[in-house]
Write a structure and sequence with these properties.
Structural class of chain A: alpha+beta
Largest sheet of chain B: none
Distance between the termini of chain A: 28 Å
Family (chain A): Belongs to the YciI family.
Number of helices of chain B: 21
Number of domains of chain A: 1
Shape of chain A: globular
Mean pLDDT of chain A: 92
Protein name (chain A): YciI family protein
Mean pLDDT of chain B: 88
Number of helices of chain A: 3
CATH architecture of chain A: 2-Layer Sandwich
Strand content of chain B: under 5%
Helix content of chain A: 25-40%
Order of helices and strands of chain B: HHHHHHHHHHHHHHHHHHHHH
Number of strands of chain A: 6
Oligomer: heterodimer
Largest interface: A-B, 25 and 28 residues
InterPro entries (chain A): Dimeric_a/b-barrel (IPR011008), YCII (IPR005545)
Structural class of chain B: mainly alpha
CATH superfamily of the largest domain in chain B: Tetratricopeptide repeat domain
Pfam family, one (chain A): YCII
Order of helices and strands of chain A: EHHEEEEHE
Strand content of chain A: 25-35%
Strand order of the largest sheet of chain A: 2-5-1-6
Largest sheet of chain A: 4 strands, antiparallel
CATH architecture of the largest domain in chain B: Alpha Horseshoe
Distance between the termini of chain B: 70 Å
Radius of gyration of chain B: 25 Å
CATH class of the largest domain in chain B: Mainly Alpha
CATH superfamily of chain A: Dimeric alpha+beta barrel
Low-confidence stretches of chain A: none
CATH class of chain A: Alpha Beta
Low-confidence stretches of chain B: 90-96
Number of strands of chain B: 0
CATH topology of the largest domain in chain B: Serine Threonine Protein Phosphatase 5, Tetratricopeptide repeat
CATH topology of chain A: Alpha-Beta Plaits
């Protein structure tokens, strides 16, 4: 089964990382990714830009309305995701545990089994 | 999890909100700072054991407030009572604690905290030092080192700035829409000052100072609080675009590398991409402002694959818009660069010459004028202009850059080459 592992964390904290700290986190997470990729179990991985770069399109009375950012005043923001193949939920949890151990921040990894997945094409 | 480095980071990122709330409670910068400091000390003791709280800012506000109240009570025993409104504010602490911690005020709290740092009576350097101390939480030593002054001198500067703010008084009521817009504008200008302190000094060593990175962090913070303000998007984009070029701005010997000669592969594409998105977002609001226009100009440079492919016509038009919105001889001087690329040195010089009176003390004026005169083959006048520029240079890198111009001018004169661009 395929699982999406969604990363939530405090954006203001992550944005406060120095370049060196950020590079180290990416390298440590990259090492975890590498192992799963080599085992043929890792699908797309993405890190999102800060929510300040986002817009939200919402259905309006006539046309869709475009608003700046996700307005939710939550402590943690959706920062990125991984798609991983796992035989059992336990295996997906292990992957998330490894990501959590590699990441010094205190965010959470939400594990969501995929109902539908289209890998898409390599993007030019 | 218990690495103190990451606790520091959590404290740093919670700082603006916690300090902002504590300033609202105590209405006194020093007391708020002491309370926050105390809360941080307790966090360093308890977080490693118990793990970080769900909401570090709320934790720090709660603990800081209690410790600050103790402090006020202790002082009250030895000193005259504080003003009535401070005391009454402390009485109702249980009743409205829930209300005060729900974060409803946090936007105005942080804006106020930033706003006290940009009091118009404070000179720019004091505004910058204060923001780095109060909002960013840098140590006096770090700030002193960045400004190349002694720690004692910086301590004195910050103390003086705080005294001035205290005397001037700060509005603690929740601002209305007009007052909020005014505060936002002033804070944005202050953040730009912080950035420029690191960016425009023309010294490669300055690139390692915290000014630019802190300014970007503050701009992002402001944008998180006011996500639909196109000028704050413009400000953030402008800072990201300028900072994206940091590795290409100086060569190995610390010499300035002009934009057109920079190795564009050294530009930080991640920062540029984020900035381009912010500009796109801002333009949708159809409310142009000076930061958005400057960002759009910087974006045209960032989008050009090579210097030769720069869209100078569009840049010229954007500068014309900026001249209308915010007339300034420096803007006209910048436009002259675009004009020289698009229409040649003579047209640019015609734009530059009338600025002589107002900009006679400005390094870039003489540098640009010298360059244009040189292109026109008016060597003697060019040499004269470069000489004035060197005298006004504020850094060795700036002076060295002009000296290179003079050397190449000397060579061209010696070779007796026919002026290439003369009419």
């Amino acid at each position: 089964m395929l699982y999406a592992v969604l990363c939530y964390d405090s954006e203001s904290e992550v944005c406060a990382w120095s370049k060196e700290q950020d590079d180290k986190v990416m390298a440590d997470l990259g090492a975890v990714n590498q192992r799963y990729a080599e085992a043929g179990k890792l699908g797309p991985v993405a890190r999102l830009m800060p929510t300040t770069a986002a817009v939200t399109v919402r259905k309006g009375a006539t046309d869709a309305i475009v608003m700046d950012g996700p307005f939710a005043e939550t402590k943690e923001q959706f920062l990125g995701f991984f798609v991983v193949q796992a035989e059992t939920l336990e295996e997906a949890i292990t992957f998330a545990r490894e990501l959590s151990a590699a990441n010094p921040a205190h965010g959470t990894y939400e594990i969501r089994p995929l109902q539908y997945f289209m890998p898409g094409v390599p993007i030019a | 999890m218990t690495d103190p480095g990451w606790i520091d980071l959590a404290l740093t990122s919670a700082r603006p909100q916690a300090m902002g709330a504590l300033l609202r409670y105590f209405r006194d910068l020093d007391l708020a700072q002491e309370a926050f400091q105390e809360a941080c000390l307790r966090a360093l003791k308890t977080w490693p054991e118990k793990g970080p709280p769900r909401d570090p800012a709320a934790w720090l506000i709660f603990v800081g407030r209690n410790s600050g109240i103790d402090q006020v009570r202790k002082r009250a025993k030895t000193q005259p009572l504080p003003p009535e409104e401070v005391l009454s504010d402390l009485e109702d602490r249980e009743a409205d604690m829930a209300d005060r911690l729900d974060g409803a005020h946090y936007r105005d709290d942080i804006l106020r905290l930033l706003f006290v740092c940009c009091h118009p009576e404070l000179p720019a350097t004091q505004q910058i030092a204060l923001a780095l101390r109060i909002v960013s939480g840098l140590s006096v030593r770090q700030i002193a080192r960045a400004f190349l002054v002694s720690e004692a001198a910086m301590e004195q500067r910050i103390t003086r700035a705080k005294a001035r703010i205290g005397a001037a008084g700060v509005a603690f009521e929740t601002p209305d829409a007009v007052a909020r817009a005014e505060r936002l504008g002033r804070v944005a200008a202050m953040i730009y000052l912080v950035f420029n302190e690191g960016y425009s000094a023309g010294e490669p060593e300055k690139l390692d100072t915290p000014f630019c990175a802190e300014a970007i962090r503050l701009a992002r913070l402001l944008l998180m609080l006011f996500p639909a303000e196109p000028e704050i998007m413009g400000l953030t984009a402008l800072l990201l675009l300028q900072h994206a070029r940091r590795k290409a701005r100086f060569d190995g010997d610390g010499q300035i590398v002009l934009l057109e000669d920079q190795d564009r592969s050294l530009w930080d594409r991640g920062m540029i991409d984020e900035a381009l998105v912010l500009i796109d977002k801002a333009l949708r609001h159809r409310a142009p402002g000076p930061f958005q226009i400057q960002a759009a100009i910087a974006a045209l440079h960032a989008r050009a694959p090579t210097a030769a492919q720069t869209d100078w016509l569009e840049i010229d038009l954007l500068y014309q818009t900026l001249e209308r919105l915010q007339p300034s001889p420096v803007v006209t001087l910048n436009r002259a660069v675009a004009v020289s690329k698009r229409a040649g040195p003579e047209a640019a010089l015609a734009l530059v010459e009338p600025l002589a009176d107002v900009l006679s003390g400005y390094f870039y004026f003489h540098g640009l004028r010298g360059g244009l005169l040189k292109q026109l083959g008016r060597y003697a006048e060019a040499r004269d202009a470069f000489g004035k520029a060197i005298a006004l240079a504020t850094s060795t890198a700036e002076a060295a850059h002009i000296r290179q111009h003079l050397d190449s001018l000397q060579r061209e004169m010696a070779a007796g080459r026919a002026p290439s661009a003369a009419p």
